[in-house]
């Protein structure tokens, strides 16, 4: 199992290898790099695709603190890119992964060739969400996510995916993964709930940027993506007609098409 020692912990990662430009995927809360399986399958012939699990999530090591804060997760992203020697890279972050991507583009732009922000926001968690999310996290911590999965699934997935009879088996698989999530995931959830906003820093981003959002995302509504697009000079906004907060799974074909078009327009690295 490939584990990378960075900053006092070990991060699980997968690397497709190959000669293509590196494309790093950074996942959303409660999931892992597996949420990008369909993107890696579609793009690995053209790009060196790298997925990784944030500390305290997926198959990365436990981090015994009360809160895995966003600055720590961002610094892990820096350390991973540097340790693998893949900078400057294309970087695609979904939700929590987008929090990492924005910080990279603002503070370490030399590490990025392009930035994809999926289902994410530069704002703190909306105040109206905090009490509910804290309650769900309390239950998950002490009893497990299976007890709150029926409430979390509609946050994580859009209406089309949840209601499509033809996708019942796929939906059941993702609900199973949610229910079987590690019990210490509450530490990472605290990091998202307590995160600081970075909207005031967005004007510093000069990296070519795609902002991608599904029309059915209720966790990070499309207006948040529009706000990002307005603040990041030269960014491209794509609002998909379907897809919720886990669009890489729900609407892989739409996501892959948007990624392919955007990445093809990014100037290639100089060779020789």
Summarize the structure.
This protein has about 270 residues and is of the alpha/beta class.
3D structure, described in words:
There is one protein chain. The protein has helices at 37-43, 70-84, 96-107, 130-143, 149-156, 159-163, 168-179, 186-193, 222-231, 247-250, 252-265, and strands at 3-6, 9-15, 21-26, 47-52, 89-94, 112-118, 209-214, 236-240. The chain is α/β, with parallel strands linked by helices. It has one domain (3-265): 3-Layer(aba) Sandwich (Rossmann fold), CATH 3.40.50.1820. Strand 7 (209-214), helix 9 and strand 8 form a beta-alpha-beta unit. Helix 1 (37-43) packs across helix 11 (252-265), helix 2 (70-84) crosses helix 3 (96-107) and helix 4 packs antiparallel against helix 8. It is globular and about 50 Å long. The model has no long low-confidence stretch (mean pLDDT 95).
Q: Which helices and strands occur, and which strands form pairs?
A:
Layout: E1 3-6, E2 9-15, E3 21-26, H1 37-43, E4 47-52, H2 70-84, E5 89-94, H3 96-107, E6 112-118, H4 130-143, H5 149-156, H6 159-163, H7 168-179, H8 186-193, E7 209-214, H9 222-231, E8 236-240, H10 247-250, H11 252-265
Parallel strand pairs: 3-4, 3-5, 5-6, 6-7, 7-8
Antiparallel strand pairs: 1-2, 2-4
Helix pairs in contact: 1-11, 2-3, 4-8
């Amino acid at each position: 199992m490939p584990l990378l020692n960075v900053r006092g912990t070990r991060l699980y990662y997968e690397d497709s290898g190959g000669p293509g430009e590196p494309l790093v995927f950074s996942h959303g809360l409660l999931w892992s790099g597996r949420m990008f399986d369909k993107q890696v399958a579609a793009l690995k012939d053209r790009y060196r695709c790298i997925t990784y699990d944030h500390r305290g999530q997926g198959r990365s090591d436990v981090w015994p603190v009360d809160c895995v804060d966003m600055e720590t997760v961002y610094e892990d992203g820096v350390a991973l890119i540097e340790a693998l020697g893949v900078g400057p890279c294309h970087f695609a972050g979904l939700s929590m992964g987008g929090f990492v991507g924005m910080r990279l583009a603002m503070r370490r732009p030399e590490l990025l060739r392009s930035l994809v922000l999926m289902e994410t926001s530069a704002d703190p968690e909306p105040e109206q969400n905090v009490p509910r999310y804290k309650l769900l996290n309390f239950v998950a911590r002490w009893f497990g996510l299976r007890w709150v999965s029926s409430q979390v699934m509609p946050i994580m997935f859009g209406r089309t995916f949840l209601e499509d009879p033809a996708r019942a088996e796929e939906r059941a698989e993702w609900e199973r993964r949610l229910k079987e999530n590690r019990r210490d995931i509450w530490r990472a959830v605290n990091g998202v709930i307590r995160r600081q906003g970075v909207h005031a820093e967005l004007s510093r981003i000069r990296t070519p940027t795609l902002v991608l959002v599904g029309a059915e995302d209720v966790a990070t509504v499309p207006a948040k993506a529009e706000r990002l697009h307005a603040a990041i000079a030269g960014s491209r906004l794509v609002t998909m007609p379907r897809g919720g907060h886990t669009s890489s799974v729900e609407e892989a074909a739409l996501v892959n098409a948007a990624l392919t078009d955007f990445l093809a327009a990014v100037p290639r690295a100089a060779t020789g």
